[in-house]
TrEMBL record:
Protein name in the entry: Protein-export membrane protein SecF
HAMAP family: SecF_B (MF_01464_B)
Biological process, per Gene Ontology: intracellular protein transmembrane transport; protein targeting; protein transport by the Sec complex
Subcellular location(s) per record: Cell membrane
Keywords assigned: Cell membrane, Membrane, Protein transport, Translocation, Transmembrane, Transmembrane helix, Transport
Entry superkingdom: Bacteria
Upper classification of the organism: Bacteria, Pseudomonadati, Pseudomonadota, Gammaproteobacteria, Enterobacterales
Gene field: secF
Annotated InterPro entries: SecD/SecF_arch_bac, SecD/SecF_bac, SecD_SecF_C, SecD_SecF_C_bact, SecF_bac
Protein function: Part of the Sec protein translocase complex. Interacts with the SecYEG preprotein conducting channel. SecDF uses the proton motive force (PMF) to complete protein translocation after the ATP-dependent function of SecA.
Organism of derivation: Gallaecimonas xiamenensis 3-C-1
Membrane topology annotation: Multi-pass membrane protein
Length: 305
């Protein structure tokens, strides 16, 4: 309990740790970049049917040496969807090679190629989607909060996005449209969590409270702490089940949500309001200025913070 009373101390240390993690994530992104999926780079998609039952792990392991890369394998009823980026050559036949490797009859139902221009278009549209989401969030924060508190929520959002992308870059995981969709969801989740704390802090600051700002920030976090843990805990339970049971096709999507919720909860507690405090947030920034008295009217004395 005494440690919880010294929340300001831990907030400052946590903010320093978050800063180091963000710098490390940016360094990994600059050095390794992101492994873009076929949605962005183009490649081949084939729908096949295998006469004998086979698992996705076995199929992917069998195809890897044949294609020179590990393909994305998705089961669709009795059929399989194979996605890969490389070009094995004009003489390569997926059905023949896979039939010999598995000892089963393989039938190709359809094959399509996603060109580079389509991939470039997906990159541009994805960047536009992220930019529009960020601008919308920025506009909302600017209208809802004073700039110091809004800046804290915005930096917490950037913190969460940087750490999620850093995890994907560090692990060499594929970044595709499903991961992008999850990242946009993480952005909304992060801002929502930060706003809960910021709104409670704003409410406290508007009451001409003479308590030091660090203590007010601590009180706002304590008041919303149980709500934050319950919301994040129940969401993590669901996403964790999806991560564990969803299989390879949903792994990137579920991992993005899982990491995003964890770092989003961390940033809403330790980053957003702390940054506003370090930017010089004071109670007087949310106090209403006294109105000018009308002729002959006497107003009570105004005592500023």
């Amino acid at each position: 309990m005494n440690r919880f009373k010294q929340l300001a101390f831990w907030r400052y240390w946590a903010l320093g740790l978050s800063t180091l993690l963000v710098l490390a994530s940016l360094g990994v992104l600059a050095g390794k970049g992101l492994v873009l999926g076929q949605d962005f780079t183009g490649g081949m998609v084939q729908e096949i049917h295998i006469s004998q039952p086979v698992t996705s792990q076995t199929l992917a392991d069998t195809l890897s040496p044949l294609l020179g890369e590990r393909p994305q394998v998705v089961q669709n009823g009795d059929d399989w969807r194979i996605r890969y980026q490389g070009d094995p050559g004009p003489d390569f036949s997926l059905a023949d090679s896979l039939s010999q490797a598995l000892g089963s009859q393989v039938t190709v139902h359809s094959a399509s190629f996603v060109g580079g221009q389509v991939g470039d278009g997906q990159v541009a549209q994805s960047a536009l989607a992220v930019a529009l989401a960020a601008l919308g969030i920025l506009a909302y924060l600017a209208l809802r909060f004073e700039w110091r508190l809004a800046s804290g929520a915005l930096l917490a959002l950037l913190h969460d996005v940087a750490l999620v992308l850093g995890v994907f870059s560090l692990l060499g995981l594929e970044f595709d449209l499903s991961v992008l969709a999850a990242l946009l969801a993480v952005m909304g989740y992060s801002v929502n969590d930060s706003i809960v704390v910021a709104d409670r802090l704003r409410e406290t600051l508007g009451k001409r409270n003479r308590t030091p700002i660090a203590q007010l920030v601590d009180n706002a976090i304590r008041a919303t702490f149980s709500r934050t843990l319950v919301t994040s805990g129940t969401t993590l339970f669901t996403v964790g089940a999806l991560l564990w049971l969803g299989g390879e096709p949903l792994f990137g999507f579920a991992l993005t949500l899982f990491v995003g919720i964890v770092v989003g909860t961390w940033s809403s507690i330790f980053v957003a309001a702390t940054v506003g405090e370090l930017f010089g947030l004071k109670a007087e920034h949310y106090l209403k200025k006294p109105r000018e008295p009308k002729e002959g009217e006497r107003l009570p004395a105004y005592r500023p913070y």
